Amino acid sequence: MITTAQSLSEPFHPLREVSVPGGVLRVARAGTPPGLADAVVLAVHGITSSHMAFRTVARELGTVPGVCLLAPDLRGRGQSSGLPGPYGIAAHVADLLAVLDDAGVERAVLVGHSMGAYVAARLAAEQPERVAALVMLDAGPYIPMPADQDPAELLAQVVEHSVARLRMTFESIDEYVDLWREHPALLQEWNDDVEAYARYDVAGRPGDMRCVVSEAAVEADCTDMIYDEGTQRAVDRVRAPLDLVRAPRGLFDDDPMLPEPVVDAFVAAHPDARIEEIDNTNHYTMVFGAGPGPRRIARVIEQTIRRNYSIA
C-alpha cells in the first residue's frame, strides 16, 4: 500500500470558478483542457462529499489521451459550501449545466456516485442533447420505500445520519482525519487519496474546526431524494447509454446500497444497460483508496467513451 504523503501525484488542476446563481461554483479539472479534448467526463459526487472523491479515478483516467474530467464541488459542499440556497436536486442540475456551458461542452459522459448518480440521471433525463452516456456508481435505480415506512420518519432518520458529522467540532484537522481513519469502510484501504479527501473537508480555527458541508443543503437533497418521484425515477426517462457499477458492500462495509431485487428490477426495465459489480469494494472504496475499485471504474468510463466518441 502507498502511504507516504508525496507518493501519489495530484491529478487535478487548480479549481476554476464558474458563475452560478448566488456566487461561484468551484470546479476541478483533470486531463486535457475541455476545448482540446476528444471527450469530456462530468463527475458528480455524493451528498456530503466533494470533487476529491474522484481523485483516484481522475489519476487513473489520466492515462487516456484526449479525455477531460470536470469534477465540481456541488452547491453547499467543498469550496462551493458558501453558496446560498435554494438547494436541492434541481439546483444541482442547473449548476452542472452552467459547468458544461462555461467549459463550452455540448455533450459529456456523466458519472455520478451515490446521490450524484440521481443528480446525473436527472440531468440526462431533462437535457438529453447534453449527454453522451450515463455511468452510475452504486446508486441511480429506483429504490421503493417499504409499504409500512412513514416518509417523514425516514427523512428524519436519513437527515440525522447525514448531518451528524457536520455538527461535530474538532481540535484540529488531524483529529477530523482520525475520525475517517476509524471508519469501517476505509480501514483496509487507507492511502493518500483518502487522507486528502478528509483533509479537504474541514475548516475553522483550532479547537472549533468543522466539516464545511452545509447542513441546509444536505437536508434539501435528502428531502428531494425521498419525496420527489422525478428524481427517484429519473433514470427511467434517460435515453442515453447506461452503465451501472455496483459495490458488493455498503457505507459501513456492510449490506450493499443496491439490494439484489433493486438491481434485478433495473435490469428488467433497462435490458440494454451494462451492469458490473466490482469485487472486494464497498460504497467508498469503489471510487477511491488503494483497492481495485477506482482503476476498474476508470476503465468503465474509458470503455464508455470509446463506445460513444470517435476515439481510437
Description:
- The protein has 312 residues and is α/β, with parallel strands linked by helices.
- It has a domain of 209 residues: Alpha/Beta hydrolase fold, catalytic domain (Rossmann fold), CATH 3.40.50.1820.
- The chain is 35% helix and 18% strand.
- The chain has 10 helices and 10 strands.
- The strands form 2 sheets. Strands 1-2-4-3-5-6-9-10 form an 8-stranded mixed β-sheet, sandwiched between helices. The protein has a two-stranded antiparallel sheet with strand order 7-8.
- Strand 9, helix 9 and strand 10 form a beta-alpha-beta unit.
- The longest helix has 16 residues.
- It is globular and about 55 Å long.
Cα distance spanning the termini: 33 Å
Low-confidence spans = 1-6
SS element count, helices? 10
Specify the biggest β-sheet. Answer: 8 strands, mixed
Provide the spatial order of strands within the biggest beta sheet: 1-2-4-3-5-6-9-10
Q: Please give the share of residues in helix.
A: 25-40%
Report the β-strand fraction as a percent range. 15-25%
Mean pLDDT: 94
CATH class of the domain at 16-144 and 229-308: Alpha Beta
Radius of gyration (CA) equals 18 Å
- The structure class reads alpha/beta
Short description:
The protein is α/β, with parallel strands linked by helices. It has a domain at 16-144 and 229-308: 3-Layer(aba) Sandwich (Rossmann fold). 35% of the residues lie in helices and 18% in strands.
